[in-house]
Amino acid sequence: MNTPAAGANAAAETLSEEAVDALGRAHATATATPPHRHDALLSERAANIKQSAVRDVFEISMQPGLVSLAGGNPYLQSLPLERLGATAAAIIAEHGLEALQYGGGQGTLELRTQICEVMAAEGIPDADPENVVITAGSQSAQDVAAKVFCNPGDVILLEDPTYVGALNTFEAYEVDVQPVAGDGHGIIPSLLRERIAALQAAGKRIKLLYTIPNFNNPSGVMLAPERRQEIVDICREANILVVEDNPYGLLKFDGVLPAPLRAANPEDVLYLGSFSKIFAPGLRIGWALVPAHLKQRYYLASEAVTLCPPTFNQMLVSDYLRNYDWMGQISTYRKLYEERCTALLAALDEFMPDGVTWTRPEGGFFVWLTLPEGIDTYPLLYKGIDAGVVFVPGAAFSAAEGPSNKLRLAFSAVPPESLREGVRRLAPVLAEAIAA
Ligand code: PMP
């Protein structure tokens, strides 16, 4: 009988070779393009820029028949598309060519002022629009941070695991990325202290601590409120600037969000925000709230990269914040992601073999699985594809070298029934690896 599951498995079987090829191609492009005389012209920095493992599996994830638990795309279907179309047309009608012209390098005052309202909802009531720099997403804000603060060889501490895009950005600046271990409640302050002391004793210059305190990508973990101030204090004592990346904060499923690290520490925290997860990522509008004494340098570095943030997109976001129920939209997103997270956790409870553990996020997009020590999840990716499911192996998310017994599942873009089916397919793959 051709049940839906059997059909999907058959599709997965016929696809697997192609899919594995796609993965191979992605790696080949990243690591082994044919030699060319221009290779001699390449910077050492360029050699450090790697293709992200998430991008590697992205191509595969698109294949029909596979359940992709790999990509952490926001689910945008609940946006009022028709109305947004009318707004876009009205912006051109009202602002004319100004909407298509260059603008100020820091971003419009109107949007910077509105962003301060968004940050008030995130727990920062006192932000000054003067210290906000609008960027092409939080991604470019991270890039500017590395550019402003880091010379080659300087250390950036990253909570482990961490966002793969940040790792890639920092490595491109020839930074020495160093992991700081966390647990189910985020960075462990005593380990941070030890790590800083050890690196300083080895003569290293530590510049930044990059952290995602709310619903970390990939782990889904939220930094415990009682650890937050201690972490900033440790960094302040060591003269390390904290880079707090908070794109998921407003997506806490319910309850009160703990105060951001920036809230009580305006001098010691560079705070990064984004409309990618609370509105739409394709607009590429994010921001940095910069300590006042660093604002000028940060702003000039940002301007040197992009000249100015996109004028039209800023107008669209401004109109959205002015005229739409943006908080209502965030509530819709929260409810949707909570439903999906609940479905994924229920499926894990139902299907996962003994020996596998996972996080239970209170917000965001991701669940992080841990297999027994000694199992490398990278080769399991291929087995997963054969079984019709795609995930991202854990090694991609660590500044530490070597294999990882972890893997990331993203629930944001997948309907509940497919989440269950994906986990049902994944379970035997992991069970076989554990039994081997
Ligand atoms: N930071 C984190 C933790 C992320 O997960 C992502 C994207 N998934 C980004 C930054 C990049 O977001 P943006 O679209 O704002 O550049």
Automatic annotation (TrEMBL):
Domain Aminotransferase class I/classII large: 80-426
Organism domain of life: Bacteria
Keywords on record: Aminotransferase, Pyridoxal phosphate, Transferase
Protein name: PLP-dependent aminotransferase family protein
Organism: Arthrobacter silviterrae
Swiss-Prot/TrEMBL cofactor(s): pyridoxal 5'-phosphate
GO MF, one annotated term: transaminase activity
Regions that span the bilayer: none
